[in-house]
Specification:
Structural class: alpha+beta
Number of helices: 6
Radius of gyration: 16 Å
Helix content: 25-40%
CATH architecture: 3-Layer(aba) Sandwich
Strand content: 25-35%
Order of helices and strands: EHHHEEHEHEHEE
CATH superfamily: Gcn5-related N-acetyltransferase (GNAT)
Number of strands: 7
CATH class: Alpha Beta
């Protein structure tokens, strides 16, 4: 059996992460997003986005199984609009709250613990940098991701948002939880 690991992303990972991003979104979100949105995923544009994330100071980690990259996480300080209450008020710990903006494992590599390892490694790195709490926005119609975060001790905080995903409304639920993770 191949060894599973989590490591920091480097600039050498940009093309691989962009390709993994496209493959994962097409497999995981084909029922949530209109076909046109998924068809328009542009690998060159995504390479720029990944390069900016890696070079911009976000925590970007890659899960591997053997030599194969199988998933990724991007996390960093939570923007005020993501951590604010529905009325716009900021919680006292806003400056110590991080946003897990993306955590995906390619479906064919799922159920092997990669997501948990990614979240735990990101949480540990961010906790070591002074963060105390994490948040993530998850589509309401994504029971697998909702269940994953709940198993990590993150729960809905009653905040929702609705995004326009290519002409289709996508409702997201904000989950929040500690960075001392207990994955079961």
């Amino acid at each position: 059996m191949a060894v599973a690991r989590v490591r920091a992303a480097t600039s050498e990972d940009v093309s691989t992460l962009a390709a993994l991003h496209v493959a994962t979104w097409r497999a995981a979100y084909s029922e949530l997003l209109p076909p046109g949105v998924l068809d328009e995923l542009d690998a060159p544009h995504l390479r720029e986005v990944w390069a900016d994330a890696i070079e911009g100071g976000a925590t970007v980690l890659v899960a591997t199984e053997g030599d194969d990259p199988v998933g990724f996480v991007v996390a960093g300080p939570a923007p005020e609009e993501d951590v604010a209450a529905a009325d716009g008020a900021l919680p006292p710990d806003a400056g110590r709250t991080v946003l897990v903006s993306t955590l995906l494992v390619e479906p064919r590599w799922g159920r092997r613990g990669h997501g948990g390892r990614l979240l735990a490694a990101a949480a540990a790195a961010l906790r070591d940098a002074g963060a105390t709490r994490g948040i993530a926005w998850v589509p309401a119609e994504d029971p697998a991701s909702l269940s994953f975060y709940r198993r990590a001790g993150w729960h809905p905080d009653s905040t929702v948002r609705t995004l326009d995903a290519g002409g289709r409304l996508l409702r997201e639920i904000r989950l929040t939880g500690p960075l001392d993770l207990v994955l079961t």
